[in-house]
Amino acid sequence: MNTYQELKNAREYIDNLMTNILATKRASSPSHQAHEDLLDRLLAPSTDATTPKFTDAEILGETTRNNCNTLTFVALELSRNPSVQESLKKEIKHLLTVYPTLTQETLHHFTYLDQVLRETQRLHPIVGIALRTSTAEVEHDGYIFPAGTKVGLHLMAMHRDSRVFGKDATTWKPDRWSSPDAPHVNSVIAFGEGIHNCIGQKVALIEVKIILIQLLRRFTIHLVEDQKIEFVTKGLKVRLVEDA
């Protein structure tokens, strides 16, 4: 069986598994749930109490698309920065001897992986602009914004502000997060903040971390040569070279 067929079969298995889980959740009564979990929130009806907030396709598709975009940019930057990739691979291989089972708790020990992901989300945020509405009158930098003003937060520009990230703000540099004058972690708001913080943030990060750990424990990522890189929806071509 070739790799493509194995991948296709795995995708079908996961899709069927998740579809069945969603169907079971939708059929169960919320009153019978001891604790509300992530799926309960996603499957809760909207304000009219009859229409679901999200369809099954939206729940499954949004997570997949956003994680794929993040992984694409990580692959791009690691292939462009082989020394960073090598340092990350060393951390992964070492920590897997200490923590062979990947759990939410053991993943916290992969600190350099955290830096790589945070720096990627800083330079390549999946959401370029976050839209908000002011709930009260606000004065900022001499401008007055009445309550109800629609405000767009340009994350791409904010994350490249040299006043926050230094003169090398446009450079992908994971080591900036371990330096003595490192920016505050909340200066990167790829998942939003406050009550509008992404509800699936922790799940998304766990998924991305596990995928990268499993890839980099065995492979080194190289860009396919002579390709014109365009930031569109067609993805990025890379080669996985199995380690000796």
TrEMBL record:
<protein>
    <submittedName>
        <fullName>Cytochrome P450</fullName>
    </submittedName>
</protein>
<dbReference type="Pfam" id="PF00067">
    <property type="entry name" value="p450"/>
</dbReference>
<dbReference type="GO" id="GO:0016705">
    <property type="term" value="F:oxidoreductase activity, acting on paired donors, with incorporation or reduction of molecular oxygen"/>
</dbReference>
<dbReference type="InterPro" id="IPR001128">
    <property type="entry name" value="Cyt_P450"/>
</dbReference>
<keyword id="KW-0479">Metal-binding</keyword>
<dbReference type="GO" id="GO:0020037">
    <property type="term" value="F:heme binding"/>
</dbReference>
<keyword id="KW-0503">Monooxygenase</keyword>
<keyword id="KW-0560">Oxidoreductase</keyword>
<keyword id="KW-0349">Heme</keyword>
<dbReference type="GO" id="GO:0004497">
    <property type="term" value="F:monooxygenase activity"/>
</dbReference>
<dbReference type="GO" id="GO:0005506">
    <property type="term" value="F:iron ion binding"/>
</dbReference>
<keyword id="KW-0408">Iron</keyword>
<dbReference type="InterPro" id="IPR017972">
    <property type="entry name" value="Cyt_P450_CS"/>
</dbReference>
<dbReference type="InterPro" id="IPR002401">
    <property type="entry name" value="Cyt_P450_E_grp-I"/>
</dbReference>
<dbReference type="InterPro" id="IPR036396">
    <property type="entry name" value="Cyt_P450_sf"/>
</dbReference>
<feature type="binding site" description="axial binding residue">
    <location>
        <position position="198"/>
    </location>
    <ligand>
        <name>heme</name>
    </ligand>
</feature>
<dbReference type="InterPro" id="IPR050121">
    <property type="entry name" value="Cytochrome_P450_monoxygenase"/>
</dbReference>
<comment type="similarity">
    <text>Belongs to the cytochrome P450 family.</text>
</comment>
